[in-house]
Amino acid sequence: MSKEKQHNKRDGGLNHILKYTGIFGLVQVLNMLMNIIRNKIAAMFLGPSGMGMLDMYNKATNLLSESTNFGISISGVKHVSEVSAQENHARTLHYVTTLRTYSVMVGLLGMVACICCHWLLSESYKTVNFLVVSPVILMMAVTGGEMAVLKGTKRLMSLTKVSVLVAFIILAVFAPCFYFMRSESIPYALLLSQLLVMLTTLHYSAQGFPYRLGLFSREYLREGVPMLRLGIGLIVAGLFGKGSELFVNYFIEQSNGLGDVGLYNRGYTMAVVYASIIFSAMDADYYPRLSSTGGDIRLQNDTVNHQIEVCVLLISPFLIFFAIGMPLIIPILFTQAFVDCVSMSIGALLFMYFRALCLPVSYLALARGDSKMYMLTELVYDVLIAVVVPYAYAKWGLAATGFTISACGLLDLLMIYGLYRWRYHFRFDFSHMWIYVAHGLLLCCAIVLAFHSHGWVRWCLGGLLGLLSLGLSVRILSKETQFIEKLKSKFRRRHE
What we know:
Elements: H1 3-68, H2 72-84, H3 89-120, H4 130-152, H5 156-181, H6 186-205, H7 218-223, H8 225-256, H9 258-273, H10 281-291, H11 297-333, H12 342-347, H13 349-367, H14 371-396, H15 398-424, H16 433-452, H17 455-480, H18 483-494
């Protein structure tokens, strides 16, 4: 392949990644805003007890769904994308039917489990009416399957429309229900909103693939077994993560009470959850693309390295501005009582930088359907977190847990790079190492500045570091893609 063709291929790949990272990032922001408004409405009309009941319903349905869906909504993306890459519509439709069949089956299993919970729980817990919400589990499974169809067949614009509509549907259903019926409306609001979400998703997914099931066909049931095996691995890996998280929270609560548990979780949310918006396109766009590379090692490595580069370029300026502004951001989003988690949040920001280097690589196990390797790496990381974070908290306090999480992120990066180099022949593109080192050094300087300076010195020097990082990212993206030029041309047309 000539250098010109390689450049054009690289430019097209980076433009594609930037486009859909921006689109799904905006969708994620919209979902967060809708969630904030929904919580505000719930607080106004339901009160603390009503919000507690709403949390109980959500946690119960999510737990039952995750425990019974066998990860179909994730593992299905891999298999559908592989079949779709063959450009055989009949074959793709056949496998989509397989996915839909299994989605309904695991949904029915979850619904039965929900009904059983209603009869098994004591009277004091029957305020949560599992009989009413049991169909929600089935509808969640069907919706997850249809979302997998959209992702696997790379119908990304339809996926975007569904995501936007879902955010508005949930708010449009919850607001009047909470206003007129208060807390008594919760199970019915959940039922109605999930029904509308399922029908909306079905509307878009059925446009290319008419809805069919093969519940009584041995062929469909046999064909979906590999998808089920990978899904079981995803469930087990998820249980590792939840167990590790619960252990850390339990240790902190036993050591110093629920107050520090709240601070730790808010600090983790600020440093990890909110910053993860940058990675919002990974599941929707990147995972199906990587799965469709098949056994082509060069194409696989190019896909992963392009994704790493874009992730680092986009998240680095964000993390620097976050580090400098954290003492201001946390009191605004929460209250002044949460300022004690500022140091923990700043220390954990390096974790997200290592995550940008690591997460695109970690998708290789999912794309290859290697559930054992995925479970192994997740288990090692979760055990590491469960051991090291409580030790750091007991010895040095809450602030140390942030740097401990970052250290675990670095070890996870080294482990995954070593294992995946051996297992999948992954090769890191060292030609762009200077970019990653430069952004990493700027972030480290910002973190040091955040801890050891105050007032105008902090804001001026921190702002300068953020602008340097932003300028570096913009310069590289302008040089290697047409994305910045397209934004400029659109801006000029609007102001002509």
